[in-house]
Automatic annotation (TrEMBL):
This is TTF1 factor. One of its GO terms (biological process) is termination of RNA polymerase I transcription. It comes from the Eukaryota. Residues 124-172, 173-255 form the Myb-like domain. PROSITE patterns: HTH_MYB, MYB_LIKE. The lineage of its organism: Eukaryota, Metazoa, Chordata, Craniata, Vertebrata. Residues 124-161 form the HTH myb-type domain. It comes from Oreocharis arfaki. Transmembrane segments: none annotated.
Length: 349
């Protein structure tokens, strides 16, 4: 299958497929497309967002069955093969022979890559070592001074995961400001986000960048859907005085403000229509729990806004409309909104 055809077929299952790189599209066409079609036949939609407890159990089951099938003696060897150079060739051969990609993703309607990353997080023994001691923090600072941001190297030296050492270093390094953001810091953050998003746009679609440069709009606001994939540790370095989590929270705050400024999303008839769309879309998901909802996709129901904005609007809707909502399950709240509140809103509209 050629690249354009693969992208077109995948678009049915992944709304943001146009923002995915060509190399990732090729991999998804081989690993995911047939799976997605099978799930569609069963009436099951492809999911994103937080993994449910049921999905975590399925991943655990898949990994355990693959270990039993191949004789590989640990999940760490299976998922972190580079840590075992003496067994690497044998493990790679077994993974190929026994179709590792298909087996690990069995029964889970998500892109293979996300399932694989989730499995690595679940089975990495270096992820669950508790708080860093004072000695570990000093070691981390020393290793970073020696090796820079080579987190893979540092993680091996400290027996912690890559993500753990990178994030911990962000939090303990000097010159971190915990007070209100200054105008200078905010501008640095916006410039950093703009720079990395321009680079991302240019990598994925060179023609899109030139068209944005000719327009009067800010491409990083137009392409808000990319905010979750931003390299926050890189942005943190560019800002210089805040760690990555602060940068992400501040950016989401700026983004919400910019995207909603001047838009009459929740006023008059637009506001009524937005609430109606949100209730209908939530009802259609048939989700039993909030963690099963793809909030990014739902944002399309009311406009080009971040998921946090949609979640905040849903919270206000249930608090103001659903009696004793704290005693109800998520699905009961949605049913109430659909059966009682929706007709009222439609009549008002």
């Amino acid at each position: 299958m050629d690249l354009d055809s693969a992208r077109q077929e995948l678009e049915e299952f992944i709304p943001h497929v146009k923002n995915i790189s060509d190399s990732s599209i090729k991999k998804m066409a081989g690993r995911d497309l047939m799976r997605f079609k099978e799930f569609k036949k069963q009436g099951i939609a492809v999911k994103f967002g937080r993994f449910t407890q049921k999905e975590n159990k399925q991943i655990q089951k898949n990994v355990e069955e693959f270990l039993s099938l191949t004789g590989i003696d640990s999940a760490e060897k299976l998922l972190f093969t580079s840590r075992y150079p003496e067994d690497k060739d044998t493990i790679h051969r077994l993974k190929t022979e026994h179709h590792f990609c298909e087996k690990i993703s069995q029964g889970i309607p998500r892109p293979w890559r996300l399932i694989y990353y989730r499995a690595r997080k679940m089975f990495d023994p270096n992820n669950y070592k508790g708080r860093y001691t004072k000695e570990e923090k000093e070691k981390l600072k020393k290793y970073q001074a020696l090796h820079g941001n080579d987190w893979k190297k540092i993680s091996e030296l400290m027996s912690r995961s890559n993500l753990s050492v990178a994030m911990k270093f962000s939090e303990i390094k000097s010159a971190i400001n915990y007070g209100p953001w200054t105008k200078e810091e905010t501008q640095k953050l916006m410039n950093a986000v703009k720079e990395v998003m321009r680079r991302k746009l240019q990598t994925e679609n060179p023609s899109s960048l030139s068209s944005h440069e000719q327009s009067n709009t800010d491409p990083w606001i137009d392409r808000e859907k990319l905010y979750q994939q931003l390299p926050w540790t890189e942005i943190e370095t560019k800002v210089g005085s805040r760690y990555w989590r602060q940068c992400k929270q501040k950016w989401n705050s700026i983004l919400t403000s910019k995207l909603t400024k001047g838009q009459q999303l929740y006023r008059g008839t637009n506001g009524l229509q937005a609430k109606i769309n949100l209730i209908k879309r939530l009802y259609e998901t048939k989700a039993e729990d909030a963690s099963e909802v793809n909030w990014d996709e739902l944002s399309n129901a009311i406009g080009d806004v971040p998921r946090t904005y949609v979640q905040a609007k849903f919270y206000r809707l249930k608090v103001s409309s659903v009696p004793l909502w704290k005693r109800k399950t998520f699905s009961e709240i949605i049913d109430y909104l659909y059966e009682k509140k929706l007709p009222e809103l439609e009549e008002k509209l």
